[in-house]
Amino acid sequence: MLCVLRADEHVAMPWANGAGVTYQVAAFPNNSDLGTFGWRVSMADVSQSGPFSHFAGIDRILTVIGPHDFELTINGETVGVPRHSPLNFAGEDDVSVELLDGPTTDLNVMTRRGEFVASVAIHNAAAGLLITPALRDTTLGVVLQAEANVTADGSSKFTMLNTRDVVVTDRAITIKGPGLIALITISPK
Fold first, then answer.
1. pLDDT at residue 127 above 80?
2. Total-model pTM
3. What is the residue-wise DSSP string for the chain?
């Protein structure tokens, strides 16, 4: 599978607590909702300080993608969250956000504990980023800044990706360009 998901195709939906808007990029299984997904990737506009939604039994990885950083208070402890620095926490944690310099956007990866596990790594694709997913893994490449080209292993044809476009793959691909890429790997347990 090799699928490109364009930024303008991400599905807008209200936060579970109603305090903002998130854009669902991909979820498994297809057509699952907030109570039935095995994994979910989304981007959220954070326009005000306040509490995060609770997701019992879910592991979360949050990455601020800009333009501003923010602070989270997780179970009473304040943690600075600079751009492009993934942070893991549990969905049932008591979490609130404090905006520092204005509204921003974050990338959210959520996995149902005991079913899936995820990781997020940030890469500069200028020299080319070879992605070779392990058997049964799903890999997503999210363009955080600028643009990049994606080619399937052994092909000379490429697809241009712009900011917030996403490629989903379970086979070898190369992403190359001036873009900054969030590489998300999701594995079944």
1. yes
2. 0.93
3. -EEEE-GGGSEEEE-TTSSSEEEEEEEESTT--TTT-SEEEEEEEE-S-EEPPP-TTEEEEEEEEES--EEEEETTEEEEE-TT--EEEETTS-EEEEESSS-EEEEEEEEETTTEEEEEEEEE-TT-EEE-PPTT-EEEEEEEES-EEEEETT----EEE-TT-EEEESS-EEEESS-EEEEEEEEE-
